[in-house]
Amino acid sequence: MPEPDAGTIARKSEIVAALQAVVPGEGVIFDAEELAAYESDGLTAYRQPPLIVVLPETVEQVSAVLRYCNEQKVKVVPRGAGTSLSGGSLPLADGIILGLGKFNRILDIDYDNRCAVVQPGVTNLGITKAVEHRGFYYAPDPSSQIACSIGGNIAENSGGVHCLKYGLTTNNVLGIELVLMDGTVMRLGGKHLEAEGYDLLGLLTGSEGLLGVVTEVTVRLLRQPATARALLLGFESSEAAGDCVAAVIAAGIIPGGMEMMDRPAIHAAEDFVQAGYPRYVEALLIVELDGPEAEVDYLIFRCSEIAKAKGAVYERVSKNEEERAVFWAGRKAAFPAVGRISPDYYCMDGTIPRHRLPEVLRRMRELSEHYGLRVANVFHAGDGNLHPLILYDANVPGELERCEAFGAEILKLCVEVGGVLTGEHGVGVEKRDLMPSMFSEIDLKQQQRVKCAFDPDHLLNPGKVFPQLHRCAELGRMHIHRGQMPFPDIPRF
Ligand SMILES: Cc1cc2nc3c(=O)[nH]c(=O)nc-3n(C[C@H](O)[C@H](O)[C@H](O)COP(=O)(O)OP(=O)(O)OC[C@H]3O[C@@H](n4cnc5c(N)ncnc54)[C@H](O)[C@@H]3O)c2cc1C
């Protein structure tokens, strides 16, 4: 991370007083014990208590906090629920955490226009809960949906089981209000479907808290499908299951969800929630088909045919809603279930072209042997979005480092086969240093110029996403003259 600025740390009391003038009451946290609660996000391998936490309740307060921090050159890390798995909301020793937890109200549910306007701290599942009694839901469904905030979902462009058919966050957000680092409040999109000008909403979605702080969100609501049934398909190898996934999509079928678990994950999930998964298979697919009943029946028949041709040795179709929920319960509990079989695990996130699944799974097994670390695979197979969970023990010296090296190899493998470094968890701190394996220096500089247009002093979530900090003035024209580095005061890390 960037070297903390000792001057800012020395001014802590002054900054606390200024923030208290904006956010009264208990909205400013500065006591070391209380700050400890914010020292990491879902990527708990990295920890750093922040300088201060501020919990505003109004847009005016967010704007005033950012304006002050911009003027005083204080760094700011936005935070929703802190479930990021890439260290996106990891604090800085010389920065404040701007927590959006108090922005937890649903402002408007507009069934006529099939959308809802909510504050960014509302949980992902909270949106569906508010509209399900009328037969609607919000489609992107990260496994963390009970806890993660919609603001965090936008920052990470989060996905989930249903994104194969219904799109990621970016396809389901219609508008946002955001506050820029200088305190300016702006709106992008709204209840209408088309927006004028550049697609800034698209740019902001997935910008990992580096461009602005989201203070209001308008999301699309979908009608719940008439029927949904799940199909369990077991295979003797992960390669055969991967082949089946590619064949189903190639046949023009887009399931509502298509997930894969390998043997270690199947056993862990079965031990944990008794979903009725077959223990003898090497890989299990959960394929959900949804839509009108006749269509679902036909698609189940087609998927079953394809699976048989690819060597499926087990098949079971959910008979009712209860059984469908049980099929999914194992998948949804797979992460905590794996947590029971290993002291620690590291969840990777990369995406590959679907047809390369069998090859990537085979090479991952070879890497697992090379590094001497077990892997459990639970992932969004239909999207080619892999989530290898590398099992390790942080108390064994050197094991975390070995695990990180193994993880980096997996992500490079994803890029090598024509995929990308991340599917839905973001770059954050975790994949920052791997960005050059995906992007050229020209690409990275152009992306940083976008950052400069929003936040010229790099105060919003610095140290995340970009492998090297360039001051905006320096971008693209670095000349070393007689060994003299320009802007020698810039921390380069
Ligand atoms: C068990 C588990 C399962 C998970 N499963 C999935 C999954 O299936 N799919 C998936 O996509 N992710 C998954 N995640 C990752 C995580 O839940 C998502 O990335 C989620 O969107 C993060 O939301 P959050 O509110 O916790 O954000 P945080 O962790 O608080 O922050 C994440 C990023 O968003 C920024 N941010 C937060 N709020 C705002 C805001 N209002 N304005 C601007 N920037 C903001 C932060 O600066 C940070 O960069 C999982 C995590 C866990 C722990």
**Largest sheet composition:** 7 strands, antiparallel
From the alpha carbons, calculate the radius of gyration and give it in angstroms: 23 Å
Helix/strand structural class: alpha+beta
| Average pLDDT score | 92
From the 3D structure, determine the CATH topology of the largest domain.
Uridine Diphospho-n-acetylenolpyruvylglucosamine Reductase, domain 3
How many strand units?
A: 20
Q: Low-confidence parts lasting 5 or more residues at pLDDT below 50? A: 476-480, 489-493
Organism: Aquibaculum arenosum
Keywords: FAD, Flavoprotein, Oxidoreductase
Protein name: FAD-linked oxidase C-terminal domain-containing protein
Pfam families: FAD-oxidase_C, FAD_binding_4
General description of the model:
It is built from 16 helices and 20 strands. The N and C termini lie close together (7 Å). The C terminus is likely disordered. It is globular, with a radius of gyration of 23 Å. Helices cover 33% and strands 19% of the residues. The protein is α+β, with helices and mostly antiparallel strands. The protein folds into five domains: 94 residues, Uridine Diphospho-n-acetylenolpyruvylglucosamine Reductase, domain 2 (2-Layer Sandwich); 118 residues, Uridine Diphospho-n-acetylenolpyruvylglucosamine Reductase, domain 3, CATH 3.30.465; 110 residues, Alpha-Beta Plaits (2-Layer Sandwich), CATH 3.30.70; 91 residues, Alpha-Beta Plaits, CATH 3.30.70; 54 residues, no CATH class. Strands 15-12-14-13-18-20-16 form a seven-stranded antiparallel beta sheet, sandwiched between helices. A five-stranded antiparallel beta sheet has the order 5-6-10-8-9. The relative contact order is 0.11. Flavin-adenine dinucleotide binds next to strand 3, helix 6 and strand 10.
